[in-house]
Amino acid sequence: MIILRSILFNTLFYTNLVLQMIVLSPFYFLAPRKTAFIVPKNWARSNHWLMEKIVGTTFTIEGLENIPQDGYILAPKHQSFWDTYALLPWLNDPVYILKRELMWIPIFGWYVAKQRMIPVNRGARGKAMVAVMERTKKEVASGRQLIIYPEGTRRPAGAEPAYKYGIARIYRDLDVPVVPVAMHPGLFWPRRKFLRFPGHFKVRILPPIEAGLDPDVFYETLIARLEKASDELLVETVRDNPHVPLPPTAVQRLKELQIEGKSA
User: Fold this and answer.
1) Facing residues of 182 across strands?
2) Span 248-259, mean pLDDT?
3) Do 251 and 261 contact (CB within 8 A), yes or no?
4) 126-157: pLDDT as tens digits
5) 197 Cβ neighbours under 8 A, 6+ residues apart
6) Number of H helices, E strands in the chain
7) What is the per-residue pLDDT for 56?
8) Does an H or E element contain 131, and which?
9) CA nearest 119: which of 106, 132, 107?
């Protein structure tokens, strides 16, 4: 049953993406930029509905009151494709720094350009990166939310921390608060797998780390707070969803926390 539901969900997920991008293009490209952002928000909501109705996966968000009013950096744990879009309905005007190659994808790249996302050549150095940071400063100063995954790439639940120091440099240069976000969607939508598992999990938005700290102090604070919250949520999620198969990293972490879990 899980295999059939996963196939159906994946099919409808990508069909939903393509259809909405095509059908809603006239409104999206003719509307003002911030008004047009309704389209990605509603796409994210429709994906949540598909996930709930087809797979049986739901979630709740804790800590929305921790989101600042002005520009800030959102720093979520990154485990799944789910967390690349899931929070869009609750964000006012997010901006991503993304691979410039994504801008070359027909229609999708045009959508991204409309929202003034910031392309970067990952191999760039010097003046190119200075230009990216200047553009980022301008967007965040206008009140936008910069979304950065501190570990850079998707990692399985329970994996050892692998934070990139780049977020500390960006924190220093932008001089805005950082809002850590702990969650474990990777237990229900695993990376590099087509299976989707039913259950319920929490997204926990932590209090902001204030601007102006020494970058090294900020870096250690971010890791400590986010890993503590991630451990707590891992224990809660496994306790509330004993049927969900766990990756070896989660099993090992639960053993370190002296909690038993069912392996995948």
Assistant:
1) 204
2) 91
3) yes
4) 666 788 889 999 999 999 999 999 998 999 99
5) 2, 55, 57, 187, 188, 189, 243, 244, 245
6) 9, 7
7) 97
8) helix 127-141
9) 132
Contact 227, 155 (CB under 8 A): no
Share of the chain above pLDDT 90, in %: 84
Q: Domain locations in the chain?
A: 2-228
User: In the block, which residue shows the tokens 């929070």?
Assistant: 87
Kindly calculate the radius of gyration of the chain based on its CA atoms and give it in whole angstroms: 19
CA distance 204 to 200: 13
In CATH, the number for domain 2-228 is: 3.40.1130
DSSP assignment, residue 21?
A: H
Please give the DSSP secondary-structure letter assigned to residue 263: B
Q: What is the DSSP string of 207-251?
A: PPBPTT--HHHHHHHHHHHHHHHHHHHHHHHHHH-TTS-B-HHHH
Full-model pTM: 0.91
CB 56 within 8 A of CB 167: no
